[in-house]
């Protein structure tokens, strides 16, 4: 028997598999599950348990950013324009969102 808390979580939780590595992406704001207005700017946390990750990554997601705010000088295929796999996974849910790593070096 599956607990009702597992069938209908109280907080947003996603199990991620990016580039063959697994982790948990989660939020602490339950409004993300029921109120689309709370999806403007919000915080998510990521933990993979990998050796290179010493603490949970705190990410700020902005779903109303504009693509023209990014630097137009770089070639889209240049290394400076590449995004970590975790950011790309987040964009499968929130297309076009910008992800701030809040001082943490992007990994994963």
Automatic annotation (TrEMBL):
State the InterPro entries in the record.
MINDY-3/4_CD, MINY3/4
- The UniProt record lists the Deubiquitinating enzyme MINDY-3/4 conserved domain at 5-103
Which reaction is catalysed here?
A: Thiol-dependent hydrolysis of ester, thioester, amide, peptide and isopeptide bonds formed by the C-terminal Gly of ubiquitin (a 76-residue protein attached to proteins as an intracellular targeting signal)
Query: What does the entry give for GO biological process?
Result: protein K48-linked deubiquitination; proteolysis
- Which UniProt keywords are given for this protein, alphabetically ordered? Hydrolase, Protease, Thiol protease, Ubl conjugation pathway
Please list which residues make up the signal peptide.
Answer: none
A molecular function annotated in GO for this UniProt entry is: cysteine-type deubiquitinase activity
Q: What class of enzyme is it?
A: hydrolase
The UniProt entry, under Pfam families, shows:
MINDY-3_4_CD (PF13898)
EC number(s)? 3.4.19.12
What this chain does, per the entry, is described as: Hydrolase that can remove 'Lys-48'-linked conjugated ubiquitin from proteins.
UniProt family annotation: Belongs to the MINDY deubiquitinase family. FAM188 subfamily.
Q: What's the protein name?
A: Ubiquitin carboxyl-terminal hydrolase MINDY
**Lineage of origin:** Eukaryota, Metazoa, Chordata, Craniata, Vertebrata
Point out the gene that encodes the protein: Mindy4b_0
């Amino acid at each position: 028997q599956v607990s009702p808390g597992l069938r209908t979580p109280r907080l947003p939780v996603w199990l991620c598999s990016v580039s063959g590595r697994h982790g948990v992406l989660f939020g602490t704001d339950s409004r993300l599950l029921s109120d689309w207005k709370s999806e403007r700017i919000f915080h998510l946390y990521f933990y993979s348990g990998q050796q290179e990750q010493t603490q949970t990554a705190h990410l700020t997601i902005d779903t109303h950013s504009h693509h023209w705010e990014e630097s137009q000088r770089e070639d889209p295929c240049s290394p400076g324009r590449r995004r970590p796999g975790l950011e790309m996974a987040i964009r499968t849910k929130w297309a076009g969102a910008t992800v701030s790593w809040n001082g943490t070096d992007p990994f994963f």
